[in-house]
Design a protein that fits this description.
By secondary structure, the protein is mainly alpha-helical. The chain is built from 6 helices and no strands. The chain has helices spanning 8-17, 43-52, 63-83, 100-112, 129-138, 142-148.
Length: 151
């Protein structure tokens, strides 16, 4: 798998989508971000991402952090394709970005699997830890399969 170089907005969208950043929740398409500003303002969110995924916690979105984000997006999208079977499939069309199709599939998953809405529609499009754990539980072999799939 060749590693992408995400733009700052694309990486913020991943942080938002994984529930690691809420500063952009006033953006109209949250969790999808259009903020290309410097990622220094999101250093604590980047460190949280790095810590969760077992990376060096330097707060820098370097090649290892980008690769881990890309892999995590592949896994989530593959799991969603298996569980909710959206049409069209998320992978490969929306891979490996946290875009509108992924956000809508997360919202559908949350509704289908009993995740309580909190009154904020934007939060229903976030694959926070509880959502990711449920996806992993429902698709025990998906991570290995997603990692092995060609891009």
């Amino acid at each position: 798998m060749s590693v992408l170089s995400y733009t700052n907005a694309q990486f913020r969208s991943i942080l938002n989508g994984l529930g690691l950043r809420n500063q952009g929740s006033n953006e109209p398409n949250f969790p999808i971000s259009s903020d290309e500003g410097n990622l220094d303002t999101d250093r604590s969110s980047v460190i949280e991402f790095q810590a969760y995924f077992g990376l060096a916690t330097d707060g820098i979105v370097g090649p290892q952090t980008q690769a881990k984000a890309q892999l995590q997006m592949y896994v989530i999208q593959y799991e969603l394709d298996l569980v909710i079977k959206p049409e069209p499939r998320i992978r490969p069309q929306n891979s490996p970005f946290y875009g509108l199709q992924t956000a809508e599939a997360i919202a559908q998953f949350r509704r289908s699997y009993g995740f309580e809405p909190d009154g904020n529609v934007k939060n229903d499009r976030i694959a926070d830890l509880s959502v990711r754990l449920k996806l992993d539980e429902l698709t025990p072999n998906a991570r290995a399969m997603a990692e092995a799939m060609p891009v």
